[in-house]
Automatic annotation (TrEMBL):
Catalyzes the phosphorylation of the beta-carboxyl group of aspartic acid with ATP to yield 4-phospho-L-aspartate, which is involved in the branched biosynthetic pathway leading to the biosynthesis of amino acids lysine, threonine, isoleucine and methionine. It catalyses: L-aspartate + ATP = 4-phospho-L-aspartate + ADP. Substrate binds at T47, E74. The lineage of its organism: Bacteria, Bacillati, Actinomycetota, Actinomycetes, Micrococcales. It comes from the Bacteria. The keyword Nucleotide-binding applies. PANTHER family: ASPARTATE KINASE, ASPARTOKINASE. GO terms for cellular component: cytosol. GO terms for biological process: diaminopimelate biosynthetic process; homoserine biosynthetic process; lysine biosynthetic process via diaminopimelate; threonine biosynthetic process. GO terms for molecular function: aspartate kinase activity; ATP binding. This is Aspartokinase. Belongs to the aspartokinase family.
Amino acid sequence: MALIVQKYGGSSVADADSIKRVAKRIAEAKRAGDDVAVVVSAMGDTTDELIDLAQQVTPLPPSREMDILLTAGERISMSLLAMAISNLGVEAQSFTGQQAGVITDEVHGKARIIDVSPSRIRAALDAGAVAIVAGFQGVTQHTNDVTTLGRGGSDTTAVALAAALGADVCEIYTDVDGVFTADPRIVPSARKIDRISYDEMLEMAASGAKVLMLRCVEYARRYRVPVHVRSSFSSHTGTLVMDPEGAAVMEQPIISGVAHDRSEAKITIVDVPDVPGKAARIFEVVAASGANLDMIVQNVSVAATGRTDISFTLPADDGSIAIAALTEHQPDIGYTSLQYDDTIGKLSLIGAGMKSHPGVSARLFAALSNAGINIEMISTSEIRISVVTRADQLDDAVRVVHTAFELDSDEDQAVVYGGTGR
């Protein structure tokens, strides 16, 4: 008997028929003898619809009230799923994040899990029931206010619950058959990856791969929770995310995949005095605004003027707050102007094997050059190379790089069952 935590995304429970299909899969796992806890997202586009509804009422809804509103979506899906499972003759009980013991900090809208005390979940499992937990939500430690975990929070809920329960595996069900070497919607010939390390998956998630959210992978790596990415629309074996074993390390491919991200923007701070402390001051201001930085490039200082340009990328959603903060502090920073560009795209090449194989960078740049694609910024880590291109060239860039590193599959084309890639 194994203890399995399963997570189903919004596209997997988008309507009544989908919920019945998921309930059947869960009931089969329970009848096979396993203990099953399930984390579920809101149905389809429910969360987006609730956000739109709130904005029709007020352009600036209080964050505390927004969290209370948005948790309604998961409560609906968890109760309906419990009903569908019970209808199949298997006992099921549904629990909110608070009832499941998910304790978070007090940051509404982007709360982080600080503890999980799943005593009620454990009791339900010991009683022979399937425990259905609302994802994406928790409760603050001291005030008992409801919080939400931000986009992809249900993934994080599932991994955190699996860690707290000591589960054998956390199965993340999406609308694709696993983790692919590129987004199947852009590269239909992308290959499914059977096994990938936490570090590689972390880089892919951070670089824009949406099949798993970054915080979910971080949590899984920290607590060594094996994650199995599968499709709720098929019975195919998916992708296992876990620590690499000895044989896997020896046979590690050079490149695991190509990820892309079109949600970033670039800010260039023009004509900054090139003196000690200015870069520190710039990034102190940006950090205080709450914006998250990604890539940073500083030009060579102009000898005649002693001034330089500094560019960095960040989520486009953070662009306005970063610009406002930098504008406010222009007098003490001493720059001439700001340039904002939200028509960029980021491509990332990821693979643990690249650290022991020279020539990866040259091959990447040659592939982009031959396709007439210009590189604007470059960033590297031990197992990743990222470049910034024009947004309208990003899809072409992904395809040519995928082909250049011989990642294309000769088998059937990859399938995105629900259309979202999650």
